[in-house]
Design goal:
binds coproporphyrinogen III, 17 helices, two-stranded antiparallel ribbon, alpha/beta, TIM Barrel
């Protein structure tokens, strides 16, 4: 049974996700608990990044930092974790190298590697392997005391496959493209395996206290529209369908789900029919055009260029005005966010101004 938590005092984001009217648009930003905040560095100290994810105490502290700092503005918390905890649960080693990013010492290179057969054959105990995430979620819900809803998340199968075969970030996508154009059939088997783990992981996050779920397909934009239909979309659909079915079966709340397929502007129409209540937009979309395509089928989330937070106050106001106008005033079917994660080096006061300008233009 899910634990008992304090009643929600602010359900703006859940209402907006379900298409209900809100007094002002709900707001949060991707990577809101992160390196642009001095208190993040202080709390993280010398701890390794994944050690922070594995400590429910540290993860919940980091999750709450932006909620405290932007009290009254931020309408959701997102659990401090990473999409790469799934490859770890599947048995792959992943390190976070300071100033470099994630590194897999032994990436998966070819379907003829023993590692490929092992990954497919392994029965991952998703409850046990990722128990620290569920504990962090439950503790965070307790600490939040109903202030705002807590978002759980996972990486999309395509994006996770990219990391597993590239062994880290990349600009070339040489390995990932090899799995699209040479090992497509073997790739699909692995994508299916990852999808099944994603479903179980998301359901267990809800059981632990997550009130909304987001699937991050950060590398969707590397695919052609045709490859997206083969390597990404079927698995995004599988996840929404089966997560909802399993939540229902287990008597859990069927929480709203968001899909964020970065760079897949060409697939917006399909994403509106992929079983998610919310579709996240990066900054390549013009708000008004996206609203026209979505045509009331989903709630849209986004989509300011995170780079505007390096800019002048006047450019922040400009971007906000363009979004508010494009998203139709903001009282319905819009969740305010950036078009991708907030970047290190941003002055936290600029994010505050962004939130203040949204409030000023929508109330
Ligand atoms: O506040 C939040 O949004 C919650 C926490 C969160 C993190 N990662 C913390 C993090 C979330 C939702 C993620 C998801 C994630 N992780 C994605 C999908 C979203 C996206 O940005 O596209 C991806 C691709 C990853 C993989 C990952 N983790 C990369 C590529 C990196 C290095 C990137 C960089 O900025 O250098 C990380 C590290 C990471 N994940 C940090 C944080 C706060 C920085 C760690 C540090 O150096 O302290």
């Amino acid at each position: 049974m899910p634990p008992d938590f304090a009643p929600l005092k602010n359900d703006r984001i859940l209402r907006a996700a379900r298409g209900q009217t809100v007094d002002r648009p709900p707001m949060w930003v991707m990577r809101q608990a992160g390196r642009y905040l001095p208190e993040y560095h202080e709390a993280k100290g010398k701890n390794d990044f994944f050690a922070c994810c594995r400590s429910p105490e540290i993860a919940s502290t980091l999750t709450l930092q932006p909620i405290d700092r932007y009290d009254g503005f931020i309408d959701a918390a997102i659990i401090f974790s990473d999409i790469l905890v799934i490859p770890q649960a599947m048995g792959m080693e992943v390190l976070m190298v300071d100033g470099v990013g994630p590194r897999f010492p032994n990436p998966l290179r070819s379907p003829s590697d023993q590692q490929y057969a092992d990954l497919l054959a392994k029965e991952v105990d998703v409850k046990k392997e990722l128990d620290y995430v569920y504990k962090a979620i439950t503790l965070t819900r307790q600490k939040l005391d109903g202030r705002v809803p807590l978002i759980g998340f996972c990486g999309a199968p395509w994006t996770l496959l990219c990391y597993m075969v590239e062994g880290g970030g990349t600009k070339m996508f040489r390995e990932a493209k090899t799995w699209v154009f040479k090992y497509g059939e073997e790739g699909k088997k692995l994508l299916q395996k990852i999808s099944e783990i994603c479903v179980e992981y998301l359901v267990l996050q809800v059981e632990a206290g997550a009130q909304m779920l987001q699937v991050f397909d950060s590398w969707a934009g590397e695919l052609t529209p045709a490859s997206f239909e083969v390597m990404s979309l079927p698995y995004l659909r599988y996840i929404s369908k089966h997560t909802k079915e399993r939540l229902k079966e287990r008597g859990l709340d069927v929480v709203p789900m968001t899909v964020f397929a970065k760079g897949a502007w060409y697939a917006l129409d399909q994403l509106c029919e992929s079983g998610y209540e919310v579709v996240g937009l990066d900054w390549l979309h013009d708000p008004a055009q996206a609203v026209e395509i979505a045509n009331g089928r989903v709630t849209l989330q986004g989509n300011a260029d995170p780079g505007v937070l390096y800019g002048s106050d006047a450019s922040i106001t400009n971007v906000v005005e363009h979004m508010v106008q494009g998203f139709g005033g903001g009282k319905q079917r819009w969740i305010v966010n950036l078009g991708h994660g907030i970047t290190p080096g941003v002055d936290p006061e600029k994010l505050k101004l962004f939130f203040q300008e949204i409030v000023r233009h929508t109330t």
